[in-house]
Every structure is written in structure tokens, then in C-alpha cells.
Write a structure and sequence with these properties.
binds magnesium ion; binds NADPH dihydro-nicotinamide-adenine-dinucleotide phosphate; seven-stranded parallel β-sheet; Rossmann fold; Rna Polymerase Sigma Factor, Chain: A; globular; 401 residues; alpha/beta; four-stranded mixed β-sheet; 3 domains; 11 strands; 17 helices
Length: 401
């Protein structure tokens, strides 16, 4: 595609990944133009982005917010000709529009599943940040990628690193790990802000502490997931689908500096790693331009300042969410959608002060044991498991006081 202008839709433009994506795009106006930007409710931020990037469409899921955006963009100074759409269906519309080449899937949580799938089904280049979509519906999602011939590129820094360390052109659809001479994947984890806290101290941590990640600046949901290591658990499941791996072929290694973003070990003993400053603009620029390389705005890695790299084993006793995800990764089925849905409800309850941090794992484990896992054959199976898990999680949380 080099030399031609790429039209991009950003699902979740007002979020942390969305903003980083627009930053990278703004450095390459000759390569990329913005087709559509979407958000849930944050119309003022979206208005600003529309004025800067002048997309053909802006979508707000919230109808009232869409009204406000429409009025704002049409009023007085700084008019822009962006058409404002409202509602969830419009997300799928701008993801699937035939004018679009590339879709950045950066909505948080299960809400991203349908619009991301819409992009996949129309055979686009799909940059996947929304890991929850793949965790929920992995088998059906990857089948849709195969059927449509979409190009799926990982944005999650670890998966982007693994992709870069894989043999050229490796994908879940070509060869397996073993046939490619790969012994294992080393998925690195920062350990999050509570890595060194005692079990007693973990009882009292606050949402603000959970959202203060030592190395990465991210949205609130993924920040809490990083603190509980559920994020690493979701990433384990994500890696199994992306790279056609068994969970037993993936080892989680805690690396507190977050400079090595993940590694691949080959049968000859070689270990390839991808390194860089912890800044999401690197994987975003990589996936946007792949197989070419473009400037991302990220500064050079200073090895002398970094000085040392440490590694340790994750502590599954203090961080049971990772253990739960490992169990789900080994079994498969709708349990992954259940894990994800229960976690979304529990994280929201924690962020609103309704449950303690350590209760997140209790909610997820309880719902997982209550709900039977089946092999989903159609999307409705996944959606039913997701809805049921949300009801169970909410009901269980109501028993807390
Ligand atoms: P943010 O919370 O910062 O942004 C989420 C975006 O999704 C916002 O644009 C938000 O709109 C929109 N959104 C939220 N809920 C809905 C909904 N129900 N329907 C439609 N749109 C919605 O999240 P992040 O950018 O941090 O993360 C996005 C995804 O990327 C997540 O899946 C996360 O796991 C993944 N990821 C993020 C990384 C990071 O560094 N941030 C790293 C690796 C992966 P509004 O602003 O209006 O609420
Ligand atoms: Mg990650």
C-alpha cells in the first residue's frame, strides 16, 4: 500500500490508545487520512479531534452527546464538515465502510466486539488493541479473519513484540509454533503498581493507587487489570489465539522495567526480544505501517539510564486473577467470555468503591464456578455467556456490604 493514502477509522478515538494513534497519524499526513472517529460519551474531546482531523464521520454511542457534538460542530467559528452519527450500529457502519482501509480497534471491553468484527468481516487491516474482543470470542473471531482475509495486527505491546520476533509472515493461519522452530513465547509483565505489596496491604489499596501504573499511562479499566494481573491473563488468552499457541507454550515473566516487551525462544536456544521505551506509539506505528517502518515520535531507548533488567516469577497467590485466566486458557470455551465479563463488572464495582481490590478475583472465580462452559459455535453463544456472567457478577456483588 506504500505510496497510497490510507483511510483510517479509529474506534475509541478519545481513549488512551485513540489519542496515541492520532498523534502518530498527525506525523504522517501524506500517508494517512482519518475517515471516522468514534467515542461513547466524550463529545467535547471528539469535537476537538474532529476540528483537527476533519473526518468524514464522527460517531457517539450516546444519542444526547451526539446532539451536542452536532450543534457544536455546526456552530459559528471553526465549522467542520464532519457528519455526526449516533448509536451502536453506527460503530459497525464506520468500521465496515468500503472506503476504509484500516481500523484501529481501541474501544475498551466487550463493547468493542461487534464493531471490531465488522471490520474483520470486511477484510480490512485491523489493528487490535481491544483484547477483550479476542478473549471473548477467539475461535469465531479468528475464523472470521481467515474467511475474510483480513490482516490482523496486534497493538498490545507484548503481542506486537512477539509478532516482531516471530519468523517473517508468521500468523495463526500459516504454521504452528513447533513447525516454525519455536520452543516457547515469553510474555513479559510489569507486575503492576502492587507488585511488591504484602497480602495485608493489598486489602486496602484504592482505585487511584491501582490506576497509577509505574511505567504505562492507560485507561482506567486496563490500569486496574494491570494491577490485578488480569491484564496478563487476558493477554495470555489473546496470545494463544493470535499465534495459534497452547497456554503451556507461553510463560509469563515479570520484568518490572517494561523495556523488554516480550520474547520468543527458538529450538536452537536463540531468544529474540523486542525492546523500547514503554510508549504505545511504537506498536501503533509498527502496525500502521507494517511491513514498512515509520517515525512514531518515541525517543531512543537509553540503555545507560535503564542500567538493568530484572526478572521474576509472577505470584499467583497474591494475584489469583492470573491463575484463573491460566485455567481458562487451558480449557477454552465460553469460560473466557465469562472470565472477561465478570472481570468487567468487578473492575467497575471496584472503581466505584463498591468492592475491595482483592474482591475482583473473588467475583471472577465465583462466577466461573457457577457457569458451565460450552464450545461456542455461533456468536450468540458468546453473547449469552457474557450477559449471564454479568448478571451473576452483579448479583454476587450485591451480597457484599
Ligand atoms: P480508554 O478507557 O482510555 O478509552 C476507551 C475508548 O472507548 C474511549 O474512546 C471511549 O469513549 C470508548 N468507549 C468506552 N466504552 C464504550 C462503549 N460502551 N461503546 C463504544 N465506545 C466506548 O481505554 P484505553 O485506550 O486504555 O484502552 C482501549 C483498549 O486498548 C482496551 O481494550 C485496552 O485493553 C487496550 N489496550 C490499551 C493499552 C493502553 O496503553 N492504554 C495497551 C494495550 C491494550 P469515551 O471517551 O466517550 O468514554
Ligand atoms: Mg499489554
Amino acid at each position: 500500500m506504500a505510496g497510497t493514502m490510507q483511510k483510517i477509522t479509529i474506534l475509541g478515538a478519545t481513549g488512551s490508545i485513540g489519542v496515541s494513534t492520532l498523534d502518530v497519524l498527525s506525523r504522517h499526513p501524506e500517508r494517512y487520512s482519518v475517515f471516522a472517529l468514534t467515542a461513547n460519551t466524550q463529545w467535547q474531546k471528539l469535537a476537538q479531534q474532529c476540528r483537527q482531523f476533519n473526518p468524514r464521520y464522527a460517531v457517539l454511542v450516546d444519542e444526547q452527546a451526539a446532539e451536542l457534538l452536532r450543534a457544536d460542530l455546526g456552530s459559528g467559528l471553526n465549522e467542520c464538515d464532519t457528519q455526526v452519527l449516533a448509536g451502536v450500529d453506527a460503530l459497525e457502519q464506520v468500521a465496515a465502510d468500503e472506503a476504509v482501509d484500516t481500523v484501529m480497534a481501541a474501544i475498551v471491553g466487550a463493547a468493542g466486539l461487534l464493531p471490531t468484527l465488522a471490520a474483520v468481516k470486511t477484510g480490512k487491516r485491523v489493528l487490535l488493541a481491544n483484547k477483550e474482543a479476542l478473549v471473548m470470542a477467539g475461535g469465531l473471531f479468528m475464523q472470521a479473519v481467515r474467511d475474510s482475509g483480513a490482516t490482523l495486527l496486534p497493538i498490545d505491546s507484548e503481542h506486537n513484540a512477539i509478532f516482531q520476533c516471530m519468523p517473517s509472515g508468521y500468523s495463526a493461519n500459516t504454521a504452528g509454533l513447533v513447525q516454525s522452530g519455536i520452543r516457547k513465547i515469553l510474555l513479559t509483565a510489569s507486575g503492576g503498581p502492587f507488585r511488591t505489596l504484602s497480602p495485608a496491604d493489598l486489602l486496602n489499596v484504592t482505585p487511584a493507587q491501582a490506576c497509577a501504573h509505574p511505567n504505562w499511562s492507560m485507561g482506567r479499566k486496563i490500569s486496574v487489570d494491570s494491577a490485578s494481573l488480569m491484564n496478563k491473563g487476558l493477554e495470555l488468552i489473546e496470545a494463544c489465539w493470535l499465534f495459534d499457541a497452547q497456554s503451556s507454550q507461553i510463560e509469563v515473566v515479570v520484568h518490572p522495567q517494561s523495556i523488554i516487551h516480550s520474547m520468543v525462544e527458538y529450538v536452537d536456544g536463540s531468544v529474540l526480544a523486542q525492546l523500547g521505551n514503554p510508549d504505545m506509539r511504537t506498536p501503533i506505528a509498527h502496525a500502521l505501517a507494517w511491513p514498512a517502518r515509520i517515525d512514531s515520535g518515541v525517543s531512543s531507548l537509553d540503555f545507560i539510564a535503564a542500567a538493568r533488567f530484572d526478572f521474576e516469577q509472577p505470584d499467583l497467590a497474591r494475584f489469583p486473577c492470573l491463575r484463573l485466566a491460566q485455567e481458562v486458557a487451558a480449557c477454552g470455551g465460553t469460560a473466557a467470555a465469562v472470565l472477561n465479563a465478570a472481570n468487567e463488572i468487578a473492575v467497575e464495582a471496584f472503581l466505584h468503591g463498591r468492592i475491595a481490590f482483592v474482591d475482583i478475583a473473588r467475583v471472577v472465580e465465583t462466577v466461573l464456578t457457577q457457569q458451565v462452559s460450552i464450545e461456542p459455535s455461533v456468536l450468540i453463544d458468546v453473547q449469552a455467556a457474557d450477559s449471564e456472567a454479568r448478571v451473576r457478577a452483579k448479583r454476587y456483588i450485591q451480597t457484599f456490604n
